[in-house]
């Protein structure tokens, strides 16, 4: 059952990522190099790649050094938290910004809704939840920190900001920093919630 869920996750993930790349390539208004950089400038894309690489490593039991990291304790819980952030931020802040149609709408829902929910369900029923502690995940905050630093630095020189709530020229540094603070607070809340859910699940399992 676990392998089947991981195989489905692998297929959905790679389809959504590659389809989004194709759509951006097809509709690009910049040169190819800039388009590729912009593609990888979305937290949505980076996090969905992490999710899909995890499923890929699990299905094919990839034990090489780049993939061994996915089997470290707490890795899938951290990835689950970040993909939930992707979904939550989209539903709250971005869904009303644009109305995609056709294939773009399907891909959009996969990346921001279906995959986050799928990973949460997978985490709830198939991931070991022993020894989940908040301090174990604090190092994971380096991922969004580096992302934010890169986006703000590159945006300063290129003028491209992938998300309106990070668009400094449009909303100013004060509002941008407030938005970043809200996202980080939400991330910590999700980490804490997953830890609590994990403890509840373990308690129920020990009673059976």
Automatic annotation (TrEMBL):
InterPro entries the UniProt entry points to: Pr6Pr-like (IPR049713)
Transmembrane intervals: 7-25, 37-57, 69-90, 110-125, 137-157, 177-202
Q: Where is the signal peptide?
A: none
Q: Which UniProt keywords apply?
A: Membrane, Transmembrane, Transmembrane helix
The protein in question is named: FAR-17a/AIG1-like protein
Native source organism of the sequence: marine sediment metagenome
């Amino acid at each position: 059952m676990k392998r089947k869920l991981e195989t489905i996750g692998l297929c959905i993930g790679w389809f959504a990522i590659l389809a989004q790349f194709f759509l951006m390539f097809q509709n690009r208004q910049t040169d190819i190099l800039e388009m590729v950089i912009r593609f990888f400038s979305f937290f949505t894309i980076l996090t969905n790649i992490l999710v899909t690489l995890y499923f890929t490593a699990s299905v094919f039991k990839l034990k090489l050094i780049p993939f061994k990291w996915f089997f470290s304790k707490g890795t899938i819980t951290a990835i689950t938290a970040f993909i939930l952030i992707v979904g939550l931020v989209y539903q709250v802040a971005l869904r009303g910004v644009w109305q995609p149609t056709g294939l773009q709408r399907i891909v959009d829902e996969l990346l921001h809704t279906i995959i986050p929910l799928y990973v949460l369900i997978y985490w709830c029923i198939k991931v070991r939840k022993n020894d989940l502690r908040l301090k174990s995940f604090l190092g994971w905050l380096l991922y969004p920190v580096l992302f934010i630093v890169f986006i703000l630095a590159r945006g300063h020189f290129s003028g491209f900001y992938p998300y309106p709530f990070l668009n400094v020229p449009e909303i100013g540094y004060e509002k941008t920093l407030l938005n970043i603070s809200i996202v980080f607070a939400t991330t910590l809340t999700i980490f804490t919630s997953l830890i609590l859910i994990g403890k509840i699940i373990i308690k129920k399992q020990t009673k059976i």
